[in-house]
Design brief:
single chain; about 325 residues; alpha/beta; Rossmann fold; Dihydrodipicolinate Reductase, domain 2; 2 domains; seven-stranded mixed beta sheet; six-stranded parallel beta sheet; 9 helices; 17 strands
């Protein structure tokens, strides 16, 4: 396949980033946009030269031939467009988390396998050069046997209102759940425990979770939405991996670009989706390019496999249940 004809379903902030990346990739033609807001769809279609806009994914799939779609809606609205695309013979890039509901995630993965279609879930940190380097060092044996993985992903408090359609753990903490499972590859999570707080009274906004693996090694998840809005980069991210022969530390924005002005100290994204020479690059571009290449060359999706994305959601959902019930949850 020389040219991949694709559509973007969902045109919020992240959907527009997908569109920007796809529009810059050679061998990709964005032929349709789908949004509940037709004004938004028409605006972006005019900006990027996309010929078709729709308010409904089913109508788009019936009227426009596409090879792939990018589903970038809220996780509570993933199931219908993903199943429709797969059943239309179309490969799917699905933003994480797969769903707010584990049964829906399992259904999507099973349907992709049954139909022989590609389904890639956007766990972007697997394409972050820092996190991927840690994985490479673990795989090489350089760090010995990994004993603990700690992931912190704390956000500015004003961002919480944007993410209230399901547990906020699915928005941020699931990134680190996926890293825990990836770094402990070959081991199985057997128990989880989580405590939460609702600091500002708008739903849970502090999450502390513990994941115990079958050999006793530990993963710790910390995520919150209570940082001051003046925090550089509006978030603080920390990854620490301790092994028997070494340790790894990733911190954002501490190792990135910081700008000092008379008004503020500003952290600038240089890793996830920065703009360089007018184009969106970084881990997001690398992730999307991987999917496009798999579609073009008919290669299987392995980063991550759908089953791995389901596993991350299974652990995350068990963490949420643990907090709700106030007890550790054993995993089958």
């Amino acid at each position: 396949m020389s040219v991949v004809r694709t559509a973007v379903i969902g045109l919020g902030d992240f959907g527009s980033l997908h569109l920007d990346v796809l529009s810059s990739l050679p061998g990709v033609e964005v032929v349709a946009l789908v949004s509940r807001s037709q004004a938004r769809a028409r605006e972006l279609a005019a900006q990027y030269g996309v010929p078709h806009t729709f308010g409904d994914a089913d109508e788009m799939l019936a009227r426009v031939p596409v090879d792939s779609v990018h589903v970038v809606t809220e996780e509570t609205r993933h199931l219908a467009p993903v199943l429709a695309a797969l059943r239309a013979g179309v490969d799917v890039f699905l933003e994480k988390p797969m769903s707010h509901d584990l049964a829906e995630a399992r259904l999507m993965a099973a349907e992709a396998e049954r139909l022989g279609r590609k389904l890639m879930v956007g766990h972007i940190l697997r394409f972050d050069a820092r996190c991927a380097e840690v994985k490479a060092r673990i795989a090489s044996g350089e760090m010995g046997r990994v004993a603990t993985v700690y992931g912190r992903r704390n956000m500015a408090k004003s961002m919480a209102s944007q993410y209230s359609h399901s547990s906020r753990l699915y928005t941020t903490g699931i990134h680190d759940v996926d890293l825990v499972l990836w770094y402990f590859e070959g081991r199985r999570p057997v128990e989880v425990y989580m405590k939460t707080m609702a600091v500002f009274g708008q739903g849970d906004d502090v999450f502390w979770g513990l994941i115990t693996m079958d050999d006793g090694s530990l993963g710790v998840i910390e995520t919150s939405w209570v940082l001051p809005d003046a925090t550089p980069f509006r978030r603080h991210i920390l990854l620490e991996v301790l092994g028997t022969q070494g340790a790894a530390l990733v911190e954002v924005p501490a190792h990135g670009l910081m700008l000092w002005t008379d008004q503020a100290v500003v952290g600038v994204d240089t890793g996830y989706w920065p703009r360089v020479h007018g184009a969106t690059v970084g881990a997001l571009r690398d992730e999307i390019l991987y999917f496009v290449t798999c579609v073009q060359q008919n290669r299987p999706i392995e980063m991550p496999r759908p089953a791995e994305a389901v596993a991350a959601l299974e652990v995350s959902q068990a963490l949420v249940r643990s907090a709700q019930e106030g007890r550790p949850i054993r995993l089958d």
